[in-house]
């Protein structure tokens, strides 16, 4: 069973509410450092931020609808990197995936990849709950072709829902071992985190990280939580 420390190192500690303030983001960073999460994930309008060097900064792009034109997404990603982002979490055009226009999905991702080249990590949010299995497969394949580093289940804002074990398993099977899979949206308990990791996720998007980690082995006074 993973410990709280091990789980924390997989978490993007996330605050993407539209009403979030700079003070909220500052508190998020303090909490992330205390909990030992891998990163914080914030909106681009919150940049720049001051964070400990060991804490990565992830920033969303084309969020949450994905309906921005590719050049706008690319400009948003480039600006975020210029302001200090280590990772970009972009949203695809979900309608293009529903129509099986995978070449268009690939081009959209490739535009952001070109604007935010390595070593910036590019995660591609596919909104898996809104897609059929064949659409998940086609979209993940497009992300791999476009040079993405991760595929990610969800924004957490879509009414269809968030991450599921089935979607994570299918995404991992599609992208293979060399591309990351991030489970995000509705991951609130240690049990859910363990299920997602067992299904193939190697990153978790979590807003309630403290509560989740409190249920992990090794948490409590001995682990500093």
Write a structural description.
Belongs to the DeoC/FbaB aldolase family. DeoC type 1 subfamily. Pathway: Carbohydrate degradation; 2-deoxy-D-ribose 1-phosphate degradation; D-glyceraldehyde 3-phosphate and acetaldehyde from 2-deoxy-alpha-D-ribose 1-phosphate: step 2/2. Pfam families: DeoC (PF01791). It is found in: Cytoplasm. GO terms for molecular function: deoxyribose-phosphate aldolase activity. The protein has a single domain (4-217), classed as Aldolase class I (TIM Barrel, Alpha-Beta Barrel). Residues 218-225 have low confidence and may be disordered. It has helices spanning 4-8, 22-35, 70-82, 94-98, 102-115, 133-145, 165-175, 190-199, 209-214; strands spanning 11-14, 39-42, 56-61, 87-91, 121-125, 150-152, 180-184, 203-206. It has an 8-stranded parallel barrel, surrounded by 6 helices. The chain starts with a helix and ends in an 11-residue tail after the last helix. By secondary structure, it is of the alpha/beta class.
Keywords:
225 residues; TIM Barrel; eight-stranded parallel barrel; 40% helix; disordered C terminus
């Amino acid at each position: 069973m993973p410990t709280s420390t091990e789980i924390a190192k997989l978490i993007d500690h996330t605050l993407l509410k539209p009403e979030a303030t700079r003070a909220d983001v500052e508190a998020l960073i303090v909490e992330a450092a205390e909990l030992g999460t891998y990163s914080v994930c914030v909106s681009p309008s919150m940049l720049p931020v001051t964070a400990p060097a060991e804490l990565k900064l992830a920033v969303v792009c084309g969020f949450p609808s994905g309906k921005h034109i590719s050049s706008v997404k690319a400009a948003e990603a480039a600006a975020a990197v210029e302001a200090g982002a280590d990772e970009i979490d972009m949203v695809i055009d979900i309608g293009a995936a529903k129509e099986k226009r995978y070449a268009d999905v690939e081009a959209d991702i490739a535009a952001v990849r070109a604007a935010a080249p390595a070593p910036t990590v590019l995660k591609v949010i596919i909104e898996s709950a809104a897609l059929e299995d064949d659409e998940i497969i086609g979209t993940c394949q497009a992300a791999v072709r476009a040079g993405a580093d991760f595929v990610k289940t969800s924004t957490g804002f879509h009414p269809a829902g968030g991450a599921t074990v089935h979607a994570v398993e299918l995404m991992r099977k599609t992208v293979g071992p060399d591309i990351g899979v991030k489970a995000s949206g509705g991951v609130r308990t240690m049990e859910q985190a363990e299920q997602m990791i067992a299904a193939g996720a190697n990153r978790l998007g979590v807003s309630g990280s403290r509560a989740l980690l409190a249920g992990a082995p090794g948490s409590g006074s001995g682990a500093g939580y």
